[in-house]
Amino acid sequence: MSNVTLQDVQRGFEAWAAKPHNAKWVRRLDGTPIANDVVVNIFEAMKGRLSSSPAASDVLAERQRQIEVEGWTAEFDDGYRDNELARAAACYAVGVTAYWPWDLDWWKPSERRRDLVKAAALLIAEIERLDRAAAGASWEGPADV
After folding, report:
1. CA nearest 4: which of 50, 57, 69, 52?
2. C-alpha–C-alpha distance, residues 61 and 67, integer Å
3. Is the pTM of this model over 0.70?
4. In whole angstroms, what is the distance from residue 74 CA to residue 116 CA?
């Protein structure tokens, strides 16, 4: 299992920042443009918060595990249309299967904190899916990208 640490993020950012960037815009992983100075501001704002939050680090590591180990990639998640990811997150958050969207063989509760980490990672997946859908459907980005 590969865990992404704050140090990994910082090294990646520093490598990115060391390269010359002539454009005002760069592309996010989902392809949408974002201003260079916004990238710097986001990283600086997150740096202190992530380094002091084991919970945030655990949620991001769980999302990475879901992608790398379980194979639940963005392309796979984009196939959902009935709030499946959010419903699964809700089930893990409250510890019931009432809204579980899949076969119960996929329901794998554990201890309370671990279930909340899974729930938060699933919510991140759902938010990212919604962002990709919105970007693809209605936003063309700035003309100079």
Report:
1. 57
2. 10
3. no
4. 21
Helix (H), strand (E) at residue 35:
strand 33-35
Length of the chain, please? Answer: 145
Distance CA 63, CA 104 (A): 21
Is residue 5 within 8 Å of 60, Cβ to Cβ?
A: no
Please, are residues 63 and 100 in contact by the beta-carbon 8 Å criterion?
no
Rounded to an integer, the average pLDDT of 36-64 is: 73
Cα four-point dihedral sign 10, 65, 2, 135: negative
From residue 96, how far is each of 87, 108, 112, 136 by CA, in Å? 11, 11, 12, 34
- Per the rule left: phi > 0, alpha: psi between -120 and 50, beta: everything else, 5 is beta
Contacts with 32 (C-beta within 8 Å, 6 or more apart), sequence order: 131, 135, 139, 141
CA distances from 120 to 37, 62, 88 (A): 28, 9, 10
Among 116, 113, 119, 73, which residue's Cα sits nearest to residue 100? 119
pLDDT above 90 covers a percentage of the chain that reads 52
